[in-house]
Amino acid sequence: MNTQQAVLSGFAVDSEQRLVRRAAAGSFIGNFVEWFDYAAYGYLATIIAAVFFPSEDRATALMSTFAVFAISFFVRPIGGVIWGHIGDRIGRRDALSLSILIMSGSTFLIAFLPSYEMVGIWAPVLLLVVRLVQGFSASGEYAGASAFIAEYAPPKKRGLYTSLVPASTAAGLLFGSLLIAWMHTVLTTEEMHSWGWRLPFLLAAPFGLVGRWIRSNLEDTPAFRAMESKHAHKEAAPIGLLLTRYRRTVLVALGVSSLNAVGFYVLLSYMPTYLSTEQGLSEAASFRAATISLTAYIGFIFLMGKLSDMFGRKTMLVFASVSFMAMSVTLFEALPGASFEMMLAIQIMFGLLLAMNDGTLACFLAESFPTTVRYSGFALSFNLANTLFGGTAPFVCTWLIKNTGNPFAPAWYLVGAAVVSLVAILATRAHSGEDFIEARS
Hints:
Oligomer: single chain
Mean pLDDT: 83
Membrane topology: Multi-pass membrane protein
Family: Belongs to the major facilitator superfamily. Metabolite:H+ Symporter (MHS) family (TC 2.A.1.6) family.
Subcellular location: Cell membrane
Radius of gyration: 21 Å
CATH architecture: Up-down Bundle
Number of strands: 0
Distance between the termini: 32 Å
Structural class: mainly alpha
CATH superfamily: MFS general substrate transporter like domains
Shape: globular
Number of helices: 22
CATH topology: Growth Hormone, Chain: A
CATH class: Mainly Alpha
InterPro entries: H+-coupled_symporters, MFS, MFS_dom, MFS_trans_sf, Sugar_transporter_CS
Domain Major facilitator superfamily (MFS) profile: 23-433
Order of helices and strands: HHHHHHHHHHHHHHHHHHHHHH
């Protein structure tokens, strides 16, 4: 290779790396906004319960708050089909650019909702409507961002790059935890209940606009553009192809995603509430534990993404399922009477187990479907799992504890999800590291 060719080759590599970095930034921001919203809603659940569902029975009010959280997930499969159709037919970039505007706008509106004291029953109704819109728009976010970065990433580093998507969800939760902890420190209880709880939702607007700008200035993925030029056609109805030719793949992906759905919401969204309501930990201490464990979890995710490139997605997911089955109940049983340090260590251990699954799952799902239906297949299976098992997890855990009197019920729920996930992952064929442009496009 002569000097001129070497220089041109270097420019090409630098340009490709810049594109991948920009794609990574575009994938990161949308999930960050989505999960910052869920962090704010989850960590402020007790206050939102008092504002929108006043009741003498604290557990009933909290269950009502989590019920709204769960109901908003029932539009996700519908949203997944629609956003998947847009992403597979028109382009990943256009779907993600539109979804982030709707998602951040609906989250922003939560800050302006009236309380039950102001408008009565209309308060929880309006909260539900806004959460439904948010759930619809968010249904294409995780799947689209994962497909987007997976199709940009070098095949041998796809696991590491795609792990940025679950890391961005944890970063949103971490930022939410830090912000809510700080608010509890500087605001009184009265201020938090009257207006303080509204402040986090205001941040969605500027975050969303930044994400929209980044995504609008990117080209669509190389795999999508190659599919357009290679096939000169797109599937008229990706959902139809999924439910016929790829029905088994969708069912397997749904099963594999169940552990992520239950584990994520139980351990990262519901756990602070569990520690404060069931284990007597103060809200401030609960938020501190969540902050430290989330920081560790983000580091674990990148490690697991790298390991999945080395050992394969299937191996990592099998190990994650078996680990949850073996350790969930034991870790929960160690919580009663534990010191703050012990509770924190348990949360960090759970974060390690969850990262084995989460740091691998996004890439696994992206590799499970061909380019023609990748967005739709990922979105449908992932959102169905989150509708059936994830969004309902805080409500189910609260209900199980209340009706069984067993404070370790969430652990058994995790074990059940791990069994389902293990059975599903054992039925799969590995596609780790395939070239999306050359294989199954």
